[in-house]
Design a protein that fits this description.
The chain has helices spanning about 25-50, 55-75, 80-85, 90-95, and strands spanning about 5, 10-15. By secondary structure, the chain is mainly alpha-helical.
């Protein structure tokens, strides 16, 4: 399995990420998920200011943002065919929070 070196730890991890030139369709799907996450987050922030916006709405809206971010992470190394036509079980798996990503900050 090909991998890359984590610059923080120096360990070999994962597989190379897709690239815009190498696989433009998969790249477009990845950037779509990120753009949709940004749009959903922007909407969430605006709605926080509205009267009556509470935890139930926040839970749903933040879950929506995470779903897009999670799919982007899981799609980072798939080809166009996999990105365009995931099975329901794969799409569900991609929507789950990654187990191989450590939050930093």
């Amino acid at each position: 399995m090909l991998g890359f070196v984590n610059t923080l730890s120096g360990t070999l991890v994962g597989t190379p990420m897709i690239g815009k030139r190498k696989d433009p369709v998969a790249w477009a799907m990845l950037t779509y998920e990120l753009a949709d996450a940004a749009e959903a987050l922007d909407t969430l922030i605006r709605q926080l200011e509205e009267e009556g916006y509470g935890e139930p709405e926040f839970r749903i809206d933040l879950g929506h943002v995470y779903a897009h971010l999670n799919r982007a992470w899981h799609m980072r190394d798939v080809d166009a065919a996999s990105a365009l036509n995931p099975s329901e079980s794969v799409r569900h798996e991609w929507t789950q929070f990654p187990t191989d990503l450590t939050p930093i900050g």
